[in-house]
Amino acid sequence: MGFWDVFGIWLASALTIGIISFLYRDNIFYKACEAIFIGTSAGYWFIILYWDNLYRKFWTQATDPTNPEWYVPWFGFVLGVLILTRLFNKIGWLSRWPLAFIVGAVAGLYMMIYFVSNAMVQVSSTIMPVFTGSWVDIIANTTVVLGTFCGLVYFFFSKAHTGVFGGAARVGIWFLMITFGASFGYTVMSRMSLMIGRIDFLFGTWLGMIR
Amino acid sequence: MLSFPVTGQVIDTVKAVPDSELVVVAPVTSLIAADHKYDDGKMIDLSWVPSIDDRLVEGNVMGYKVYRIEGDSEPETIAELAPGSNAYNDQSVERGKLYSYFVSALSSNAETPSIRTAPIQPQREWLNIELINVLIMALVLGGAVIYFIETARRGKKLFVRKIAGLEAVDDAIGRATEMGRPILFIPGILDMDDVQTLAALTILGRITRVIADYDTKIFMPVSRSLVMTAGRETIKASYQAAGRPDAYSDDMVTYITDEQFGYVAAVDGIMVRERPATVFLLGAFFAESLILAETGNSVGAIQIAGTARPAQLPFFIAACDFTLIGEELFAASAYLSGEPKQMGSLKGQDVGKAIAMAAILIGVLTATIGEAWNVEWIQHITTGLRDIFSTR
Asked: How far apart are CA B33 and CA A80, in angstroms?
């Protein structure tokens, strides 16, 4: 292992311990690690965005004579320049145009995506027989239908959650909470594996206590 | 590489096999290349009649190779298909380019190419007739939204049930004001092309409209430059609406870094140093959700969270005082503002949910009865309902 490898391991260990020290309290080591992390990541992302967006997506495509849609990136470029008009008080209002374009385009695009995937497909897939087949099928299908229907009742905002409707909404929120509980346990376990990874690095790669 | 073979010209694929030992199969016939209907010009459909030597029992055809020729370039293999195949959908073409195709029938040691198709250019259609049901449903929902907006504009009060998390927003702002401590607003870590970020900024507008009156401090660290710009615009507009443009400062919204955990490290530091009385975590969150919510909890802040990401909701529910679950985040702005446009939109969406609930109820009943007693006309109703919501 060369000098720079050893140096990298020691640096990574120091930064890991510095970040973990936040669990005790805010301190100078954490502040130093935080500043290094933010500074290096901001610089890293600047370079990534420059090469990925400005160079690859804009410049190479906008100046490619074989690209029949060479003018499209220029449209984005003009919107990008308009954002910079914020720097000038008199024409700063122009920076709202690209924002309005992004918000409008996103709303329009996602409206159909979510409508199709979250509504249409969900309803179509839930239309199934519930009291046929094996016991396992009956339980599985009933759970899907009941959970979807009661979940919809919970997210129906035009009626107060009282009476039978309120009961169905309560069943809906129980379904949600059970799902969240399962998700919580699953995610906590995946985080544990991340922590084990760092412990392994500190006690294995760095200190050599784990082989 | 084949170079524009003549139809029926047998090509030795194993090489060094005497001509007498080549297993020659008949070529495919009636090869047709047609533009795929109702797409955005990125697909071409191929169909053909399989080789007459392609029989299920003791057939000599081992499969088919589909070749594509782009303009004047050399042919390239784009697919290898099993015996019996008679169609292929080429999804790797580009609009505005000319393509022609030929298909080779493969034997164990040779291949026999078909005639080459005429050049074809993929076309884009503006309307996908196969998804007309989606258009009709969208029009029904759009119509419902417009109807309710007009109803609200005429002054009719539209009912929306209580949402606990949103009832607490004013209390949370009041708490920060009384304690003289700032409010921290975290709009998630995604950019302006995510609807959750848009929903968060809409709620931000409502919150800052109130704090502008109270002169409460707000701080909003962001991880995307566009969110910074939009956040500043939102807060500025709120302060102007409150008649206090002088109280607004660009420092209220600060860009940190695009890096997920770099951003988290900074926000955690801000929480323990500034000790905000109220923390709003609204938007799209990922692995950082629990770290942020736990740190906010440790400094004693009242926390109102909301996201539509199911994997992160459990952490917010566990560590925050109030959590807006999924759709509640999107309903929040209408609920808080009571504006006719937003209320109409919310009520229109409820019409969609009512249709979905009715369809599920009727569909499940008919599917169960139809299958249990094998009643044909009831099964037709089930199929019809599925088709209405199907997107193929």
From this structure: 42
